[in-house]
Amino acid sequence: MRKRWALLWVLLGCDRGADGGGAVDPADDARRAVLASLGERVIRPAYAEFATAAAGLRDACAALAAAPGDAEALAAAQAAWRAAMDRWQVAEMMLLGPAGPKDRVGGEDRRAAIYAWPTVNACRVDQEIAAAGYRSPDFFARSLPNVTGLGALESLLFRRGPENVCPPQVAINREGTWAALDPAEIGRRRAEYARAAAAEVARHAEALAAAFADLARHLADAGRPGSRYPSTRRALDDLFAALFYLDLMVKDVKLAGPAGIADGRDAPPCPDCVELPWSRHSRAALAANLLAAERLLLGDPPDTPGFDDLVPGRIAAGLAADLAAARAAVDALPDEVVAGDPGPVRAAHAAVKRVTDRLKREVVTALTLTVPREGAGDAD
Length: 380
What we know:
two-stranded antiparallel ribbon, 59% helix, globular
């Protein structure tokens, strides 16, 4: 461990009065240094980089809408979507402030407007294409998240055939609405819809980037007058709750579903559970999630403060080793995650579980953090 934190474990064993409004907690300065470093070096840049990528996606989709039959314009829009998705998957591990749920400090639950997976519905996107509902000025204000954001954009940019994915009994098929559209018109409407959806994502991304520039200051000043965080412990709790995305989404949804793991037991593999099937970008998304977890837990770069500076050396070393193994296991996956053999996905699930088990047991105990209520009942 870095020597400048050698006394931290001793400090953590001292008076913990910060939350009770009494004695000063002598570990506050150490915690605040970690929060300041993560806020400025990891969290704020993640949202700034996503805003830049979202602006690029907006512009690429606008170019595609101007030339919907142009193969180069489509390829550029697809590349811009991948770049934006990669950066959002990093930010997904840092759902704090306005991006986070309403039970966290400053939470406004804005994630859904950008990427609501697993609440996605390609059939509903096709229904909006048939109705041209995206042309309405209030479309995004009144629509559910399953037809907006980066999830809808994946369907719009990567599904290129003229078919829709709705069952025969859905009105666009039953009444012939979709069949009345020729392939060129379907392509035009997909491009128009993508332009509108990408502009909305960019708008939210810009707002979040501005909010996180301010949030970094509040993290650095946690427990001081003027900060939204009443204590350094509350700030760490909120950040730890955000890290639980690794357990509740990466392990239990993104990997367990495709691998065929239900309640800790083997079940049939589920190819339909893969996160990004149209773009075949699911492995890259998982890799970005783990990169973000590593930055938060070990610091970025690793010689700067991270969660590992707040725990004993053996726990920090175990976290680093487990994260490296998890990243290697994810890197070994095929792009589509499940390709006939669920073995590699189950291996990645087991590797990520070693990380999350250490977080839920050793890190929680060492730092007396609060396990978020949505993870409290997870027995695996």
